[in-house]
Specification:
By secondary structure, this protein is an all-alpha fold. The chain has 20 helices and no strands. Helix 4 runs parallel beside helix 7 and helix 5 runs parallel beside helix 8.
Length: 360
């Protein structure tokens, strides 16, 4: 049998050509995809520019339709939010918050909330935006719709995620006052109260804002919610704000006026059935009172806190990592150097917890 001689070099060009062809097709597909993306974005830009231009129309119907469409697309398309901001929509949206039309207010406020997810810098750099939000919040019980109030408060909460914006927003006393009044009012819808509490919490994360929140009357309505509100979520949010504003010297006297230490201690009683989050907030508030109020606050905390040591110990054992740490810290405040507690009681019940490291 005769075998033909195989020359392997004869086969080299074929795969090389195939590879080159495949690479060419792949590059063409990639270019085509990029062109499609560019075309798609250009269509979005043209659409947005047209809608924003209509916000300046003399026709109420044209403005209303454009506003409703901007709200819709900003909700469902994350890519288009920066496009809307860049097209100059924010000043129009801010101006519309002064409108007496509920639908217009609601669409403008909701669009601002959607934009705050990705375009916080654009919002904060828009002159008059915070004043417009303040106006909407200030008229929460009269000319501003509840939905617009909620979106405006939620927009503030979104902006307050950025540390550098907290002192700026906190310097707007009228905003803080309006948020406090929303929390205070018996006619405020639960959703409005929750959004206002979240905004107050964000403001209070900046230490120098806390005395402003207290000065503008937040303490009494916050504790009123904690004591009287049956909805767990609102109690959790209210106690979170209380935990923050306890972190300043001004809190001591204001908390005394509403028997604040007693209320916080009651939240730690096992019999009240408070959620873990509420109990952790109560512990944080008591620790902040001791830290910033000195012996004036420390004496009350130590005397009243002894009644709920079991509840604090339970949190130290079963709470979140942060809750455990703070509960142990509060146990140390209550037990170390407290003449009302016998050494045998400390050794037998809490010694193993006190030996844990803690910081607050």
């Amino acid at each position: 049998m005769v075998f033909s001689k195989v020359v392997f070099s004869d086969f080299i060009p074929f795969p090389t050509k195939l590879m080159h062809t495949t690479q060419t097709i792949s590059q063409e597909n990639q270019n085509q995809n990029q062109n499609q993306i560019k075309t798609k974005m250009e269509v979005k830009r043209r659409t947005v520019r047209s809608l924003v231009a209509k916000l300046g129309s003399v026709s109420d119907q044209t403005r209303a339709e454009a506003l409703a469409e901007l709200r819709l697309i900003s909700k469902h398309d994350a890519e288009i939010r920066p496009v809307i901001s860049d097209a100059g929509a924010i000043p129009y949206l801010a101006e519309i918050l002064y409108s007496t039309s509920y639908p217009a207010q609601e669409n403008a406020a909701a669009t601002l909330l959607n934009l705050s997810i990705t375009s916080r810098d654009a919002l904060m750099s828009t002159r008059g935006l915070l004043d417009a939000i303040s106006h909407a919040l200030r008229h929460h019980s009269s000319s501003t719709s509840p939905d617009a109030v909620q979106s405006c408060a939620a927009t503030l909460h979104s902006l307050l995620i950025v540390d550098s914006y907290r002192p700026i927003i906190g310097s707007k006393r009228d905003i803080i006052h309006s948020l406090v009044e929303i929390v205070r009012s018996r006619n405020s819808p639960p959703r409005s109260i929750k959004d206002a509490l979240k905004a107050l919490f964000g403001i209070s994360l900046y230490p120098l804002n806390r005395h402003q929140v207290i000065e503008l009357g937040a303490v009494q309505p916050l504790f009123s919610l904690i004591v009287n509100e049956g909805r767990v979520g609102i109690v959790e949010d209210a106690s979170a704000v209380v935990a923050q504003i306890a972190g300043c010297e001004e809190s001591v006297d204001e908390f005394k006026r509403v028997s604040g230490v007693g209320v916080l201690v009651d939240l730690l009683d096992m019999g009240t059935g408070s959620s873990d989050r509420v109990r952790e907030n109560a512990v944080s508030a008591l620790l902040n009172l001791v830290r910033f109020g000195g012996e004036r606050a420390g004496k009350d905390v130590r005397e009243m806190g002894l009644k709920v040591m079991d509840g604090i110990a339970d949190l130290a054992e079963n709470g979140s990592a942060k809750g455990k740490t703070k509960a142990v810290a509060l146990l140390k405040v209550l037990l170390e150097g407290n003449s009302l507690v016998s050494d045998s009681r400390v050794d037998s019940r809490f010694d193993y917890l006190l030996n844990q490291s803690c910081s607050f």
